[in-house]
Amino acid sequence: MRSYLDFEKPVAELEAKVEELRALSSPDDGVSIADEVQRLEAKASEALSQLYSSLTPWQKTLVARHPARPHFGDFAAGLFTDFTPLAGDRKYGEDEAIIGGFARFRGEAVCVLGHEKGSTTETRIRHNFGMARPEGYRKAARIMELADRFGLPLISLVDTAGAYPGIGAEERGQAEAIARSTDACLALGAPNVAVVIGEGGSGGAIAIATANKVLMLEHAVYSVISPEGAASILWRDTAKAQDAATNMKITAQDLLKFGVVDGIVREPVGGAHRDAKAAIAATGDAIAEALASLAGLDADAVRKARRAKFLAIGRTL
Predict the structure, then answer these.
(1) % of the chain residues with pLDDT over 90
(2) Which of 51, 223, 301, 312 has the fewest Cβ atoms nearer than 10 Å?
(3) pLDDT at position 14 over 70
């Protein structure tokens, strides 16, 4: 059963009417309602298109968090073959909030990293809702080092509200682990491409997204803090999260203008959760194009290009 966000209620009502008419129709009742069904379907499609053409930053945040939005596992299954995940950081333990390993992307060997939020209660708990602990970022750095050693492109899929802020994570050096993972990104001699597929939250995201090319899905968000967190700090009122989302410039469209990201991957009308297969295919095409633009660069050129990209952010031309 499809899950609707609050602002999608007009579309939900139209699609509910369509389903109701289909349930009531019968080939033996002598009454054809096909025309009415088509009319309502067209109306619902138009309403959905208009709605998603003018989403507010807060609405985009809700879409990025949609429970049915495709997660890392969906992208991994749709984009990669021979995926061989690696476990553990060789220092403390395993963290399933970040998954990574070796794979093939369109026939070429690559390394893959990504946050996994989970899609059911059980898997969300197991993956800690995509919020990684220090061992997750140390595992990420370990995989990056392997990518560098074997000269394999690294593809990162970002989807996290942020790194896990628990006491245990802090005791095990959360900030240091994030910093080392970010440093490992910057030190890579192999090209890397990062895609924000849902939420890109704070250092938890940048730790695996400091890439030569950073892409965002059309309705993803990327920010230093969640809108709720910003509202609680600035106004001491989480109810002002919508205002915070607007002022923080967290959408793909805003971040492309600022040079924080390099490209936007179009989503199906209604968001990636309405047609995950199409969204994943479009993401694959964007990744392939980004990797092609980096082909032929030696390790020093790759590092220099990445460094220049991040140093240019915020500069006026």
Answers:
(1) 80
(2) 312
(3) yes
282 vs 290: CA distance, rounded Å? 12
Q: What's the CA gap between 306 and 308, in Å, rounded?
A: 5
Of the candidates 237, 289, 238, the residue with the CA atom closest to the CA atom of residue 263: 289
Determine whether domain 61-312 maps to CATH 2.10.10.70.
Answer: no
Q: Which residues pair with 102 in a beta bridge?
A: 84, 111
Contact between 98 and 302 (Cβ < 8 Å): no
Handedness of CA 133, 173, 141, 282 (dihedral sign): positive
CA distance 247 to 269: 25
- The span from the CA of 39 to the CA of 33, in Å, is 10
Q: Which long-range contacts (CB under 8 A, 24 or more apart) does 34-38 make?
A: none
pLDDT of res. 317: 47
Kindly report the backbone phi and psi dihedral angles of residue 65, in degrees, each rounded to the nearest multiple of 5, phi listed first: -95, 5
- Classified as helix, coil or strand, 212 is coil
Residue spans per domain, the chain: 6-54, 61-312
Task: Give the CB-side neighbour count of residue 9, counting CA atoms within 13 A.
Answer: 2
Closest CA to 156 of 227, 92, 74, 211: 211
Instruction: Give the position of tokens 């002022």.
Output: 247
